[in-house]
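for the record, two folds in this file. i put them one after another cuz i was lazy. first one right below, seq on top, structure tokens after. the second one comes after a little note so u can tell where it starts
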Amino acid sequence: MPQAERGLRNVAVEIDGNVHRLIGTDEVRVATLDKILDDPVFEAKFGANTVKSLRGLLTDPRGLNLRNLTAHGLLDPSGQHAPAAFVALMCVLVAIWLRASVVAAKAQASAS
């Protein structure tokens, strides 16, 4: 899951999304994945359905919530996690594809 989160964070950087959050009046921290997916820039670039799907798979407690289950050690070690692992792999591949599409669009725009 860290790879999917890092990949989506890199995508946000590529599209000038906000990957930081202000704490109080003077402290800046890294934004959570949910906050990155909430960024209007992210939704404007990839659409509401993509953002809703990623949120449901990775961060929404009403969905699979894979990022949080993994990050907080909430998956039962003795459980069968092959389906969740497959979904996690697909999220990493989606993050790679999104970033590649953004980089390609930027390269095409600068070549024009």
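(here's the note) second protein begins now
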Amino acid sequence: MDTREITLKPLPQCATKAELMNWYLKSNYTADMIRKSINQIIADTRGLPIDKAKFVKNIRAKELTLFVKEFDVPVGYKL
């Protein structure tokens, strides 16, 4: 039995879409599922049309929180 403790990193308060993709692809979510969900969250919170939300690069703390509520904490991270 392995008694080593797994060290979890604290989840940052904000991130880029690329960082978010890297975290959640390790959790076996598809890139399309992640992209559609975060773009919808950005469109809803910022009042943008969905076609404009896809050009946003930085995810705000509130948007990240909503995403984590929907998809849970990514593998290797803690709240």
